[in-house]
Amino acid sequence: MTEWVVLDIEGTLSATDQVLVTLYDYARPRLGPWIDEHGDDPAVREAVAQVRELSGVAGGTDELVAVLHGWMDADRKVTPLKALQGLIWQRGYAEGDLVAEFFPDVVPALRKWHDEGVRLAVFSSGSVAGQVAFFAHTTDGDLTPLFEHHFDTANAGPKREASSYLEIASVLGAEDPGTITFYSDVPAELHAAAEAGWRTVGVAREGEPHGGDDFAPHRTVAAL
């Protein structure tokens, strides 16, 4: 019996283009000004220190931004990049510049699970701050009350490693990992979750980057 449903976002709940085009285009020109204007913010200082450590860059903001833009171009799931993007998106959602949109089947499924007593959580490469802002400002209103936990690569670990799913199960208090079902559009993430003992469902949406991938041996659906 499923007690928890844990959900990926990009390509599973929302179109990949919303992240790689809309959100990335919003964050890209704002990274440099954000770093300069929020240098006293501990989260920004930590992210900048991590960028320097990972890249070896010792120069100023322009060099940092060049690294961040390179990671964005390659769609790298790098924690300090996600942290900075999340802060920028949080402001964008709060100011009404951004509004999250979902595939048509998503919100009815979330509400049905919640009404049936299934507990919901999110595991996305986007930062927790960005996730919360995303679900708080949607075309269907504030959906944050539906979710009990948010996980990212900072508080759980890489999405393609079984240890991350074991960590999440521990936080959720799930003594039997088989009571957790993970929905994702990325087979490698499903493999890692299955290795940790979770149930898995591949979401193969037509037109999405992973829609035509081989999801075997995971149960696969075209919508939630």
Structure characterization notes:
By secondary structure, this protein is of the alpha/beta class. The protein is built from nine helices and six strands. The chain has a six-stranded parallel sheet, sandwiched between helices. Helix 9 links the parallel strand 4 and strand 5. Helix 2 crosses helix 4, helix 3 runs antiparallel to helix 5 and helix 5 packs parallel to helix 7. Its cofactor is Mg(2+).
Q: Roughly how much helix do the residues carry, as a percent range? A: 40-55%
Please give the number of β-strands. Answer: 6
**Terminal Cα separation, in Å?**
17 Å
Count of helix runs: 9
Write the H/E string, N to C: EHHHHHHEHEHEHEE
Strands in their spatial order, largest beta sheet: 3-2-1-4-5-6
Q: Strand-residue fraction?
A: 5-15%
Output the structural class: alpha/beta
Mean pLDDT: 96
Shape: globular
List the uncertain runs.
none
From the alpha-carbon coordinates, what is the Rg to the nearest angstrom?
Answer: 17 Å
Most strands sheet = 6 strands, parallel
